[in-house]
Amino acid sequence: MTDENGNSGDWNSGDYNSGYFNSGDKNLGNWNSGDYNSGDNNSGDWNSGDYNSGDENLGDFNSGGKNSGDNNSGYYNSGDNNSGDWNSGDYNSGDENLGDFNSGDLNSGDFNSGDFNINQPKFRLFNKDTEYTKSEFLKKYDYPLFYFNVKLTKWIFESDMTTTEKEEHPEYKTAHGYLKTYSYKEAWRISFDKICDKVAAEKTVNLPNFDYDIFEEITGITKAMLNKKRELNPVKNHDINLDDLSKESLINIIKKLSQ
After folding, report:
1. Is residue 161 included in any domain, yes or no?
2. Residue 249 domain-assigned (yes or no)
């Protein structure tokens, strides 16, 4: 049974929806402000995935379009976390890569900045060659976890939205939130603040050829920020002669240790 707007679902302000709570039109899914979505919580159109602000995505959390992978700001990606286009690999800023972490194009290998490569070059760090390929480097060094939590998109639920965000994204009323997009440096800073600890900061500055200025230019993370994470206030060990302590002092120490 349909209403006067052709909706078979309920609570739709749009038309011809079989899902629920849609302000867009012809949605099979729910809470969509876009049109023709079979997924949920989309502000874009023709998405079968969820939480997309782009169009025609099979995957989730895409601000770009026509992605079957997730978390892409580019287009036509079957892999994940790509800012480039037509990648079947992951974390590529270039286009049409089968491999991963390429800034160049048309690579089946990994970590290439050029085109049409099938092997790995000597790995460059901070504008200088190292003695390793990237695979060899990763056997000797491991990147901190915060390098891999740099997310360019995040679904913001309605309950967490600010007044300004609600004004700028009125589609939240239908989708119960919106897909927030971060700049590259913003995403790095969020991951750094949330995850980076002393050990991770030490691993970073001990990378071969490490250069504070280059690291800041790419990530926005400054020397002062890294060094603050590296600071440690060690607990000083003092030799204590128990015979020199009063009974009251001993009781206070025991109480503090038991808390």
Report:
1. yes
2. no
Q: Both tokens of residue 156? A: 């913001």
Characterize 129-156 residue by residue with b for buried, 16 or more Cβ atoms within 10 angstroms of its Cβ, and e for exposed.
Answer: ebebbbeebeeeeeebebbeebebbbbb
Is the pLDDT score of 124 beyond 60? yes
Whole-angstrom distance, CA of residue 135 vs CA of residue 11: 54
More confident call, 240 vs 194: 194
Query: Is residue 203 one of the residues assigned to a domain?
Result: yes
Domain encompassing residue 223 = 131-230
What pLDDT is stored for residue 238 in this prediction? 42
- Region 77-99: mean pLDDT is 72
The total number of structural domains in the chain stands at 1
Q: Does residue 143 sit within a domain?
A: yes
Neighbouring residues of 200: CB distance < 8 A, sequence distance ≥ 6: 144, 145, 146, 229
For residue 96, what pLDDT band results from cuts at 50, 70 and 90?
low
